[in-house]
Amino acid sequence: MRPMARRGLAIATTLTLLASSVACGSDDGPGSGQPVPGVTDTEIVVGTHMPLTGPASAGYSKIAPATKAYFDYVNANGGVHGRKITYKIMDDGYNPANTQQVVRQLVLQDKVFAILNGLGTPTHTGVLDFLHSNRVPDLFVASGSRSWDQPERYPNTFGFNPDYTVEGKILAHHVQTDLPGRKVCFLGQDDDFGRDSLVGVEKVLGADAVVDRQTYVTSNTNVAPQIGAFKAAGCEVVILATVPGFTALAVGTAARLGFKPQWLVSNVGADHPTLSRQLGDAAGLLEGMIGVNYLPMQNDTADPWIQLFTKVNKEHNGDAPFDGNTVYGMAVGYLFVQVLLAAGQDLTRESLVEAVRKGGYQGPSVAPLRFSATDHSGYGGGRLSRVSGGVQGYFGPTYETDEEDGPVNEYSAPPVAPPANGVPSA
Amino acid sequence: MSATRAPAPPTRSAAANRLRAGRPVPTLLRHLAVAAGAGLLVLAISYQLDSFRNFQLATVAAYLCATAGLTILTGLCGQLSLGHGALMATGAYTLALCQNAFADRGVTAGGVLVLSLGAAVLATVAVGALVGVAAARLRGPYLAGLTLAVAVVVPALTVTFDGVFNGEQGLAVPMAPAPASLGVYFPYERWQLWVVTVATLLCLVVLANLVRSRYGRAFRAVRDDEVAARLAGIHVARTQVIAFVVSAASAGLGGALLAVLAQSVSPGAFGLTLSLFLLMAVVIGGLGRLAGAVWGAVLLVALPDLTHTVTDLFTLSPAAAQRLEGNLPLAIFGCTLIVVMIAAPGGVQGLVSRLAGALPARWRRHRP
Lengths: 426, 368
Prior knowledge:
The complex is a heterodimer of chains A (426) and B (368).
Chain A: H1 2-24, E1 43-50, H2 57-60, H3 63-76, E2 84-91, H4 96-109, E3 114-116, H5 121-125, H6 128-133, E4 138-141, E5 157-159, H7 164-178, E6 184-189, H8 192-205, E7 210-216, H9 224-233, E8 237-241, H10 244-256, E9 262-265, H11 272-279, E10 290-293, H12 304-316, H13 324-343, H14 349-358, E11 381-388, E12 391-400, E13 409-411
Parallel strand pairs in A: 1-2, 1-3, 3-4, 4-5, 6-7, 6-8, 8-9, 9-10
Antiparallel strand pairs in A: 10-11, 11-12, 12-13
Helix pairs in contact in A: 3-12, 3-13, 7-8, 10-11, 13-14
Chain B: H1 14-22, H2 27-48, H3 51-76, H4 84-104, H5 112-135, H6 140-160, H7 162-165, E1 171-172, H8 188-211, H9 214-224, H10 226-231, H11 236-262, E2 264-265, H12 272-285, H13 290-313, H14 318-343, H15 347-366
Antiparallel strand pairs in B: 1-2
Helix pairs in contact in B: 2-8, 3-8, 3-11, 3-12, 3-13, 4-5, 4-6, 4-11, 5-11, 8-11, 9-11, 12-13, 12-14, 12-15, 13-14
């Protein structure tokens, strides 16, 4: 009988322990006195997901280090309201499945204050709902998908790039005015990036004007079928909605097939230094390529913003090769510091989002920022650039337009100069 | 001949058998009791862990379905499969399509998840039967080749038929929130853990019973010697197809549960590396034993996290950190496999049961 009794006692004890441990757990509702996640009197922890490896890492892997370098520069100059910014960079390899994991890790484990500049249309789309249900500010997504601009559904999400439809309209506007009557073809990434861009192109040129449409996926690095189809269709102008690796692939493949169209490239895939590195000895193929951009050109050493960013790059980024991605990363950092300042000393997630919604920020860009209570998209326009003599430079006016049927207008507000010490002030 | 030859599962020690001989507990009851105990344990743990650990534990449970199925196929029936990642994808996409179909028709009740999970298992059973029939005719490297092709083809299909599967961006999986009766601030990750644990435990009970049944004995007979098995009246091909279908069904359930956790599916989650990782995990854990599958599933989740922590400890130059970030988990996984194979050919579980066997023996010796 004794073993029976002992066994019974053991089971009873286990059950009691289990029950008490369940009862001890508490569901922590957000009380008013609770601290803001990721914010202390001396530190603000912000996180991001970036393709440091994988098919989209070419060029893009330098964005987050540049942003971090700018934050280090600000920290060295006293921080924001006395707080230093810590930037946690997580690699997702441009794989939506990894993004799910790393963003959960940032939000649930590392308890970041906000997600800043998470990169990629397919990757970030998958975490929108998760960030929304956890009430995490999701600022300046590094993509031009129109998904970020849904203030009712995702009140805490804001874009950064001009949306791909706006960009498509500006590229198509150039075709309409400078290359009329040419046969236009379109190669886009097989997700919202490519689709949104094609919508913009067709809004300006009409759906019939695009002779051939092709798509690619980042997991397949052979674009010969698509380029072959363009050649067979007799395309003279090819508009690319591609990441840098695939811009380079498209241009290189076309050269191999003896096909020489006029390339017009989305801003996210048109950074000349990145493409040159990809193409190596064949960098000459990029001659004449037209791109869109909205930030100072990386080789424009006379621009005060480029001077500032070059200095930060030298001091805090180990003097990494300076290209459009560096400029982009630092511009994101600058805007975030502006927003933090506007949110005030008493920083909460609500005050941060409210500060973005108020809008009125001016930074390095030649195009206007559109943030308001009803508009969560980023920049609202861009300027065309051309590669000539191996140097990428702006030409023509800056354009702005909307993602609907509005016309493509010239935008003439002069750019602002950076503050003397390179750190925005309230 | 079998493709792999795993050590036979441990026979219960004579002493234990003698203890049990008096009052035999039916296998099903014993397994249900163990599952209930495990369920209570997870329930208690879920209140002690933070949200992220709950999510990770739920991911372990989801992977466990797949590794348990694979360990039965490879460890018990001797068939090698490099395509279980693709079977998981089949389950995950079926679940996503079902959940979307329900949401489109305005059905958002939490209960429909059970239907979707059922559909996911059925779809994978169909695919598994198809592959299994072909697999039953193949041996060794040819079987590996066939399943490898499945692993490569299935994710590629999602890109080819992007109208249905939305290409590499994948599909969102609409999920009902946790029941309101649990409170407004009930952490969603804890609810996810509960849901996934219930499904996984059910799957494990079924598998554990299968292993101890006539079918389990037939699996082992086929693995050890097909000719002898045939002489004993076992239909070898049918047994192999059954093993493949069972294994596929659990992989499909595992994939569907992963989709439930991530609330999205995309082909990137189910690439060839996942299939290879699954196989490595069951080998490291201990081939042919369900307890080994548990170790394997834990490793699948813990290793990437561990390597990230390790790289964080060192202040590396940005370039070196960048190169290590994506590749270090692979290297560590490979090294672990080599070390385990040399030090403990029975896997982690083999080591554990050897230690567990050795300790009482030593204790008895020391007792006067």
